[in-house]
Design a protein that fits this description.
Layout (H helix, E strand, L loop, with lengths): L10 H5 L5 H8 L6 H12 L6 H9 L3 H19 L2 E11 L25 H14 L3 E6 L7 H13 L1 E2 L2 E2 L2 E5 L5 H9 L5 E2 L7 H7 L8 H5 L1 H7 L5 E4 L7 H19 L5 E3 L19 H14 L4 E4 L5 H7 L6 E3 L32 H10 L3 E3 L3 H5 L4 H7 L3 H20 L3 H18 L2 H15 L8
Parallel strand pairs: 1-2, 1-10, 1-11, 2-5, 5-6, 6-7, 7-8, 8-9, 9-10
Antiparallel strand pairs: 3-4
Helix pairs in contact: 3-5, 4-12, 4-13, 5-13, 7-8, 12-13, 15-19, 18-19, 18-20
Bound molecules: S-adenosylmethionine and iron/sulfur cluster.
The site of S-adenosylmethionine has 21 residues, from strand 2.
Amino acid sequence: MKFTPEKCRIPDIAMKPFIDVDELHDFLDRPKPTTKQVQDIIQKSLNKKRLSLAETADLINADDPELIEQIKAGAQTLKRRVYGNRIVLFAPLYIGNKCVNNCKYCGFRTSNKDQIRTTLMDKQIIQEVEALEENGQKRLILVYGEHPEYDADFMAHTVKTVYAVKKGSGEIRRVNINAAPLDIEGFKTVKKSGIGTYQVFQETYHPETYKHYHPSGPKSDFNWRLTSLDRAMEGGIDDLGIGALFGLYDWRYEVLAMVRHANHFEAVYNIGPHTISFPRIKAAAGTDVDQKYLVSDEDFIRLIAILRLAVPYTGMILTAREPASIRKEVLTFGVSQIDGGTKLELGSYSEDQFDSQNLNREQFEINDSRSLNEIIDELLDQGYLPSFCTGCYRVGRTGEHFMEFSVPGFIKRYCTPNAILTLSEYLLDYAPDKTAEKGWEVIEDNLHKINNTAAETETRKRLERIKNGERDLFF
Ligand code: SAM
Ligand code: SF4
């Protein structure tokens, strides 16, 4: 179905995309900032204020090694001070890899005839979800290629199928989606199925580059994609994820454009994007990607720190595309959600034959194939509090990142207790003894840190109830 601007409440937005290439380049062409300017900008972010485009451009242009270190340190302080030590865990579930588009970087593109095309049937979805629940997963993101078979009704059906699967004390409590843009009616249909976040990555905000990498299919329409999340808002989904695929164009431009996209949401809907993603291009079957803009590890870390400071109350997602060492390092700069136990091959959670990766059965290569428990082990060793919390979403507290950030005591009253309660379920139901031992120590430590007697007492009471067999208690 084609988008009709007159159906949009804010036709201007539909008609006039908010990305202005020259404007963004003008910001990037500003003179380099002084040390004092950079320090003031960092301070502004630490004072819980979102940065302007000019300020973000200044952080991007600050390439003196000493200033880069100060930006990274600022992001670390912000992360520690505002968000504490919780890391939310999830897993992707690929539903179907048929695709009518021809994205040059993706193994699913239609011209890749070697790709083995599969769409999970209900029975297979159920098997996959049971396997994920048996590992302790509570939050999934469903991923689809773009294909007439994967319309809004199909997506809604698969979401409902996932929610209905209960294996032992397992259940999926939040289903997010990463899929092609829909029209307003489509977003309404998917919203009714009870999804959490709808993610659409713009891939590149640079129209010329976009055209090059998306030569055919519906995805070749830059503006249809750029305005997709406005249509989602119109369809009632206010929990949205934006992203750029780093390596297609200059990372500096993409960072600034993502901040522009976030500003657009705030200006028009008074709510920022729920999450921001910044995948780097990875190997995929027979892809055709120019090496010119590939992002080094050093610049990757730098751009994550800049994004953290620029949009301080947006959740940041880092996936298993990145190797364990990079994931470990960037957690300190503001990443708040990671996947664990990830498998991309369709049907691979429930079928043992897919132990090694086969690029003809998946979208791209992952570089962190550790199990969920291995990831949890490492997080606990580093003093993080792994969380499967879905509390805000389920009591209708949307804009939770904003509240974490701006409502005094919110994290202590809601986030830390809910993280503790969901971790305790994992430790009781799924963790090996060694992980459980470490986990209870981390829980005890974090209970002390709540520093709010009423919240601590209430959390301890609920922990006892969970130990006695109750599940799914949250604030
Ligand atoms: N087909 C839908 C779409 O394109 O919007 C769903 C998303 S796709 C299955 C998930 C995301 O993976 C894409 O938006 C893109 O950013 C990313 N991706 C594609 N190829 C990639 C590669 N080779 N390396 C890393 N990420 C890739
Ligand atoms: Fe299809 Fe999405 Fe891959 Fe593009 S990125 S080829 S739309 S699955």
